[in-house]
Write a structure and sequence with these properties.
The chain is mainly α. It has one domain (11-56). 82% of the residues lie in helices and 0% in strands. It has one helix at residues 10-55. It is rod-shaped and about 70 Å long.
Amino acid sequence: MAWTTPRLDPERSRRRLQLLAELAGARTVRQRDRPRRVRSERLRELIATRRRIAAG
């Protein structure tokens, strides 16, 4: 498949640009959210470990 882009009608190229912008926006939101998720997972791990130690 060739990567040359045929001349698209304006409506189609506008929709494509909008879709790409939405994907880029979703990606930045995911990257911003990731550290919080990692922190909460680590905290859950620590709590579980302390419970195991306390129970043993």
